[in-house]
Write a structure and sequence with these properties.
This protein is mostly helical and 426 residues long. The chain folds into two domains: 241 residues, no CATH class; 151 residues, D-Maltodextrin-Binding Protein, domain 2. Helix content is 66%, strand content 5%. Strands 2-1-3-4 form a four-stranded mixed β-sheet, sandwiched between helices. Helix 1 crosses helix 11, helix 3 packs across helix 6 and helix 11 crosses helix 12. The two termini are 19 Å apart. The relative contact order is 0.11.
Length: 426
């Protein structure tokens, strides 16, 4: 026990002297957490709260185009501004740049005429199917001229699809209103009362949104719930920059040879490194989680809400940290120089993070990449954290994610042992 404690003290002193390694393990992940959370929070606000600026060039003077603009305003996702009707494509593009608008819509000059003609045609066909007499002159009319949507190329395809869906809903509502008016007038020979019109058009079923959780009491997750656990895992695995270099340094300067002359085993040294750096990963998690809880609200970022099972959170952190430390030691044993350890370590961590879902959610990947994600320890670490933070689960609910992490850890440990045996270091 004394040998183990003495080795732990030695590894701690080596760690404290490694200023660059400490910066990579603490400062860099903290900066990443702040930057990425702020960016994603801005994206959440754009999608959920902020409105997209949209310019409307209305070349029509009828009621239907005015109703369309009013309906687009009511959708809730657009901040509408109108342009003069004589705008050309070039002037519309200039206006978008000047007003910092991502979208612009041009309503054609004959919009109201075409909408009413089509509505009367549809109403006439409906009356004919009811066995009633309809105006035959209105049975064959052309389609309504399409709206023209200009967009800034920076707008992602998913957002453009949402915009098109909103505009189609507005168009459908305007056309349905005109069709309903035509039908009512043809049957009753008087105008449709506004109150009845609103009741018939706005009688829609509501939608309740409930995030899926283990206990059924979870509030809607925010950007902090997504990013803080993810970049905490990234920080844990970046101990490879310090720990891998420490293992290489002991091989290069002959410490391994000297240790073999002492009445101890190098496996004690490996155990010491694991205990020391697992403690470092737990401290990393504590620091980053604390920043999410207390500092994020001070800079207008959503606060991190810890899961109800704190013990489960500690166990998950411990297992993830052990896996990260095991990987770092494994790389350090096989690397011959600091450059090999740091270069391979940094690149491999970024790759594992990418395919593991830390940078891009796994549900957006194709089937082949999803298969590779199962071999990334970061994927299972992230799923375990998400099970606690996003789904409100407890330790028993994330055991299915912890088991693959433990298996991968033992694989790293076994490969490390084989490497030490092959190099005659133990």
């Amino acid at each position: 026990m004394f040998k183990l404690w003495a080795t732990i003290v030695k590894d701690f002193r080596v760690l404290v002297r490694d200023g660059i390694g400490l910066a990579l393990m603490f400062v860099m992940p903290i900066v990443l957490v702040f930057v990425v959370t702020d960016i994603q929070n801005s994206t959440f606000k754009l999608i959920n709260k902020n409105k997209l600026a949209i310019l409307i060039c209305n070349r029509d003077t009828g009621e239907s185009s005015a109703q369309l603009i009013k309906t687009i305003n009511k959708i809730g996702m657009f901040k509408v501004s109108q342009l003069p009707k004589n705008q050309s494509k070039e002037t519309i593009a200039d206006s978008m740049k000047q007003r910092d608008a991502l979208l612009s819509v041009v309503i054609p000059a004959n919009f109201t005429v075409k909408v009413r003609a089509k509505s009367k045609s549809v109403a006439g066909k409906a009356l004919t199917s009811f066995g009633l007499q309809a105006d035959s002159a209105q049975k064959n009319v052309g389609e309504v001229d399409p709206l023209t949507l200009y967009y800034n190329p920076v707008l992602q395809e998913s957002m453009r699809i949402s915009v098109q869906g909103g505009l189609r809903s507005a168009l459908q509502l305007v056309e349905s209103r005109e069709t309903l008016r035509s039908l009512y007038f043809s049957i009753n020979e008087k105008q449709l009362p506004p109150k009845l019109e609103d009741e018939m058009l706005n009688n829609k079923a509501s939608i309740n949104e409930i995030p899926v959780s283990k206990n059924g009491t979870l509030s809607a997750p925010n950007a902090a719930q997504h990013n803080v656990p993810a970049w905490t895992i990234f920080a844990m695995f970046f101990v490879i920059m310090s720990l891998g270099g420490s293992v290489v340094r002991e091989k290069v300067n002959g410490s391994f040879i000297r240790l073999k002359t002492l009445p101890t085993n190098y496996l004690v040294g490996l155990l010491s490194k694991q205990l020391t750096y697992v403690a470092v990963t737990v401290i990393q998690a504590a620091v980053i989680f604390s920043l999410g809880i207390w500092v994020f609200p001070l800079i207008n970022l959503p606060a991190l809400n810890l899961p109800s099972d704190i013990f489960g959170l500690f166990v998950v952190t411990l297992v993830c940290g052990w896996c990260a430390v095991s990987y770092a030691i494994c790389v350090g044993v096989f690397a011959e120089t600091h450059q090999q350890s740091n270069g391979f370590g940094a690149i491999s961590i970024v790759i594992l993070a990418a395919i593991g879902g830390l940078m891009v959610p796994t549900f957006t990947m194709d089937t082949s990449l999803k298969t590779f994600a199962n071999f990334s320890p970061m994927h299972w670490c992230l799923q375990a954290y998400y099970g606690l933070f996003l789904e409100g689960g407890r330790l028993r609910d994330v055991l299915g994610n912890l088991i693959p992490i433990i298996i991968i850890t033992f694989v790293f440990q076994f490969i490390t042992f084989l490497g030490l045996k092959r190099k005659n270091l133990i």
